[in-house]
Amino acid sequence: MKNQKLEHLWSILCTNSSVDQNTNNVSLFSIIEEVVFATDGPLKSEAIIPFSCDLVTLWKKSNEGDQVDTEGLVEVMDPKGNATGTFKYLIDIKKEHKRLRSILKIKGFKVTVPGNYIFRVKYRSDDKSDFILAGEIPLYVQLEKNFKTTNKA
Predict the structure, then answer these.
(1) What is the pLDDT of residues 74-91, one digit of tens each?
(2) What is the rounded CA–CA span in Å between residue 119 and residue 18?
(3) How far, in whole angstroms, is CA 106 from its chain's centroid?
(4) Half-sphere exposure of 40 (CA within 13 A, CB side)
């Protein structure tokens, strides 16, 4: 999506990211499309899954001489369309920079049912506006029963 000052170029969910100090290029490791979590049985209603990942987003200023200072938001939606979590951050692109790469470190999120979860990347066009949807990143979540095995001699 585009407004007068800001463009969302891309967002990617990965296990880890690294920024080279010399070139400022980013490396994305193990892009995530699907995850499998082991459970001891059906979920009671919801569970916080300890799951570390990075959501890396590249923003670009529409006008190079402008300064962009706004708020970003990532909203996680479950397969039923319910919001299960939100992560806020600042989008601050100085006049002398053309773009901003934001790296959101996620340490876990709420799982309610198996299926397709959507990470909605949003931003404000100004301080008083509602958040504008810039992009959506799907993550398919599978739950597998954790069968315990015993060794018999």
Answers:
(1) 999 999 999 999 999 999
(2) 21
(3) 7
(4) 2
